[in-house]
Design goal:
Helix 1 packs across helix 3. This protein is globular. Strand 5, helix 4 and strand 6 form a beta-alpha-beta unit. It is α+β, with helices and mostly antiparallel strands. GO terms for molecular function: antioxidant activity; disulfide oxidoreductase activity.
């Protein structure tokens, strides 16, 4: 960990930044600790389905393509500001590249059918800094087959979608970090 910070320390710092604008979510307990099933569903990307193209505008007005990140694992997160589970998972999702290496992992948060102004206002209020892409008409979300929020697609370093996670995830958990670490070892 950089500067001797632990995952939980980074998570606490991220949640602390959110305290002023949104109610800070409680740290998620693991499914094993609560005896409940997790609040997410992990599945493999269908082998027969090609990875859709991704080209979207970021909040700075620049065009971003999935191909721009070849050589890095991409966590493509579909979210909206009106979605409480989306907001709750964002601090740990944002921290994944810092924990595993910003040269190895990137998070792209694709905002569903909201304006850049709405997304910028949310980021400013929450203290989050992850890269946000815009899908104002919902066409990208539809092309990727997303029907629930949040949904995160795990994409390998060669640009191939490998797994899909529907629902809120504690990305600081060993389970979630393990999904990403496995992709880092595949070439």
């Amino acid at each position: 960990m950089k500067n001797g910070l632990t995952r939980r320390g980074l998570l606490g710092a991220s949640l602390g930044l959110m305290a002023g604008a949104l109610p800070a979510p409680a740290l998620p307990a693991t499914a094993a600790a609560t005896g409940k099933s997790p609040g997410y569903q992990l599945s493999d990307w269908p082998a027969q389905r090609p990875t859709p193209a991704l080209e979207a505008q970021n909040l700075q007005g620049e065009r971003v393509r999935l191909a721009d990140f070849k050589g890095r694992v991409v966590l493509l997160n579909f979210w909206a500001t009106w979605c409480p589970p989306c907001r709750a998972e964002m601090p740990t999702l944002q921290a994944v590249p810092e924990w595993l290496g910003e040269d190895k992992v990137v998070v792209l948060a694709l905002n569903y059918r909201e304006s850049g102004r709405t997304a910028r206002r949310f980021l400013a209020a929450s203290g989050l800094t992850l890269p946000v892409l815009l899908d104002p008409m919902g066409e990208i979300t539809q092309a990727w087959g997303v029907r629930a929020f949040p949904t995160t697609v795990l994409i390998d370093a060669n640009g191939r979608a490998r797994q899909v996670v529907q629902g809120e995830v504690d990305w600081s958990s060993p389970t979630a970090l393990g999904w990403v670490e496995r992709l880092l070892t595949q070439r």
